C-alpha cells in the first residue's frame, strides 16, 4: 500500500527541534525502499491557489486562511499496511515536535 505522509508543524517552529534527526529516519527507509520520495516544501507564503470560476482561471498567492499549523513537507511510503505506516511515522522526528498525517492512495477498480 502507498501512503502520503504529510508533515505538519505549527507556524511557530519548536526551538528544541533537531532537524539532523531526519537523516537518521530517512536513510534506512530509503535503503529499504519503504520511502519512495520525500521533500520539504517552500513556505506557505510561496504557494499559489488555482481555481476556475465562470470559465476564468483565477490565481492567488498565499497564505490564505488563518491557521496555526501548515504542511511543511511530505513523504510517500510504500508499506504492507497501516500498522507499518504508523510505526514508520512514529519514528519521524516531527512526531515529537509536530504531527504526521497518513493518507492512503485511492485504490481504483481495475
UniProtKB/TrEMBL annotation:
Residues 25-108 form the YCII-related domain. Signal peptide: none annotated. It comes from the Bacteria. InterPro entries: Dimeric_a/b-barrel (IPR011008), YCII (IPR005545). Pfam families: YCII. Belongs to the YciI family. This is YCII-related domain-containing protein. It comes from Microbacterium ureisolvens.
Amino acid at each position: 500500500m502507498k501512503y502520503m505522509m504529510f508533515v505538519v508543524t505549527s507556524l511557530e517552529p519548536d526551538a528544541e527541534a533537531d532537524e539532523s534527526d531526519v537523516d537518521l529516519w530517512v536513510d534506512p527507509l530509503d535503503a529499504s525502499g519503504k520511502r519512495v520520495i520525500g521533500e520539504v516544501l517552500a513556505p506557505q507564503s510561496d504557494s499559489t491557489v488555482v481555481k476556475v470560476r465562470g470559465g476564468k482561471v483565477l490565481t492567488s498567492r498565499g497564505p490564505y486562511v488563518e491557521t496555526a499549523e501548515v504542511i511543511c513537507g511530505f513523504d510517500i511510503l510504500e508499506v504492507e499496511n497501516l500498522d507499518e505506516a504508523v510505526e514508520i511515522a512514529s519514528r519521524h522526528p516531527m512526531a515529537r515536535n509536530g504531527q504526521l498525517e497518513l493518507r492512503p492512495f485511492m485504490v481504483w477498480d481495475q
